[in-house]
Amino acid sequence: MKKSLGAKTLAYPTPVWVVGSYDAAGKANAMTAAWAGICCSAPPCLAVSIRKERHSYAAIMARRAFTVSIAGQSQVAQADYMGMVSGAVADKFAVAGLTPVRSELVDAPYVAEFPVAIECRLVQTLDLGGHTQFVGEIVDVKAEESVLGADGHVDLSLLQPLIYAPGASLYYGVGPVVAKGFNVGRAYMD
Hints:
Blueprint: E1 14-15, E2 17-22, E3 28-33, E4 36-41, E5 44-50, H1 55-63, E6 65-70, H2 76-82, H3 92-96, E7 100-102, E8 109-111, E9 116-127, E10 132-143, H4 156-159, E11 162-165, E12 170-173
Antiparallel strand pairs: 1-11, 2-3, 2-6, 4-5, 5-10, 6-9, 7-8, 9-10, 11-12
């Protein structure tokens, strides 16, 4: 029997995305966000939700762009740090020993050392209450060759991305392949 846990943000798992932007002074900033995901396939879009009081909020609103950098498990401390301190009081890139790279396609930086970077042009915002959801059209995805599989796609076993368990505030890694999508369910099709 299932036990009620109440109305909480306990959807499992959530991504560990590092959202890059430039602030009003032009300083590169990044923040870790877990309230995020793909939200459209045509055009390709993702959404990330950020509180209005966060330093990144005003930067994304002003520049109409952001990036998402995806860290590997070996970079968990840096990804965690990026979500603990405000870019208004610290140069998070410098403190974490990371390098901001200016996107050539959108007005936002991504993290050079993280294996995947997604560059987004802001297309819509939605005020949800405590958070504003930023919908970004994906204009490019960049990945280190070291995390690409033979098919040219990102191989999760090579990327070793982090996932986050809200409530418990724990980072996890991704496990082994369980089944092929849009295939294993064919057993139920007539």
